Every structure is written in structure tokens, then in C-alpha cells.
Amino acid sequence: MVAGLRQEYPLKLLLTIAGLPRSTFCYQLAAQSAEDKYAGLKQHILTVCRQHKGRYGYRRITAAIRHTGTLVNHKKISRLMNMMGLRAVIRQRKYRPFKGGAVELRPIS
User: HTH-like domain: which residues (predicted)?
Assistant: First the structure.
């Protein structure tokens, strides 16, 4: 909002009306234009997820990435997967009712 009206009005006035400190505004501008330092790792995570059809969680993805020779912490993989909205598919077990014979109990004497 402030960046859009910056050409028409003084920055100081806009920041006062918005109640935003100048340092915060400058920090956010720099953060938006900054390059994503985990872009390569995110792409690697997506590749592993697609290879295994979304069945791998963060532990197995971490193991697969480490197997390729990239040193990475499991917590970083978990955080990036949460940011990207990736979750492992949890397969439900097939229901198998017990079909054994009846059990005879001995009488209490």
C-alpha cells in the first residue's frame, strides 16, 4: 500500500498514517527483493517427493537428500516442507476382521 502511493505522497507522511516505522518499511522492501537462499533445496525436496509420489515424510526425504551427498538437517527439511505445504500421504491399513475359530474357555472349578 505504502509503496504504491510513494510516487504521489511523501514517504514520511505515508508511514505516519500507516503507523509503520521507517526501518520496518525498509527492511520489508529489502526482504522482498532478496533472493531465496533455499531455492535449490526446495527444488530438491520437490523432486524427491514427486519421485516417491508423496509417500515420503521429512525423515525419508532427509535420508534421500543426504544419500546424494548434500548435508542438511532434518529440521530444515521439515520447516521447508511445511512452508511449501507438502505432507506425506498416510496410507490406511486394510480392515481385516478376525476370522479364527471360537475359543473354548475352561470352566472355573
Answer: 41-94
Place of cell 486394510: 94
Q: Which amino acid is it at 31?
A: A
Looking at 1-109, list the stretches that DSSP marks H as alpha helix, in order from N- to C-terminal side.
2-5, 11-18, 22-33, 39-51, 58-67, 74-84
Give, as one character, the DSSP assignment of residue 34.
S
Residue 54 has pLDDT above 80, yes or no: yes
With CA atoms as reference, report the closest residue to 88 among 104, 77, 97: 77
Q: Which residues contact 91 (CB under 8 A, 6 or more apart)?
A: 55
User: Looking at residues 31-36, what average pLDDT do you find?
Assistant: 86
pLDDT of amino acid 42: 96
Cell numbers describing residue 63: 535420508
Tell me the pTM: 0.64
